[in-house]
Design a protein that fits this description.
This protein is α/β, with parallel strands linked by helices and 134 residues long. It has two domains: 31 residues, no CATH class; 83 residues, STAS domain (Transcription Regulator spoIIAA, 2-Layer Sandwich). It has three helices and six strands, in the order αββββαβαβ. The strands form two sheets. It has a four-stranded mixed beta sheet, with helices on one face. A two-stranded antiparallel ribbon has the order 1-2. α2 runs parallel beside α3. It is globular. The termini are far apart.
Length: 134
């Protein structure tokens, strides 16, 4: 590999794409030179009781909740939302793209939390991705 090849690889963003219907499970990476795509980010804040126990957890997701983004944060999302039976606010106001894999992870975390006796509320705010349909 030449130094030019290494430089191109270093400065590219990789995005997964699947091949034709004849090979539906065969996926490969397509590189977009010079394009920097944001992946997902996650952070949390806890509201504490006077005794130090957690009263409420707020989990904030941001950027792209697509296959690459969820790969980065799926385990952390589950550990923050589904381990303890807490009330959880899941803040999606800073999400710029929500793919089906992101929806699946959110639903799975909410179900796991429900089974433990906790509840999840999703905060959407004035997000343009979510529009009411009549």
């Amino acid at each position: 590999m030449t130094s030019l090849d290494r430089n191109v690889l270093h400065n590219t963003t990789q995005s997964p794409t699947c091949r034709s219907a004849a090979q539906p499970r065969s996926c490969h990476l397509v590189q977009f030179p010079g394009v920097m795509m944001q992946t997902a980010s996650i952070r949390s804040d806890d509201v504490l009781e006077a005794d130090g126990s957690i009263k409420l957890r707020k989990v904030v997701l941001a950027d792209r909740l697509d296959m690459l983004g969820m790969e980065d944060i799926a385990l952390k999302l589950t550990s923050l939302t589904a381990i303890k039976p807490l009330p959880v606010i899941l803040d999606l106001r800073d999400v710029s793209f929500l793919a089906s894999i992101g929806i699946r992870n959110i639903i799975s975390s909410a179900r796991a939390l429900d089974q433990k006796g906790g509840r999840m509320v999703i905060l959407l705010g004035n997000n343009e991705l979510v529009k009411a349909s009549a």
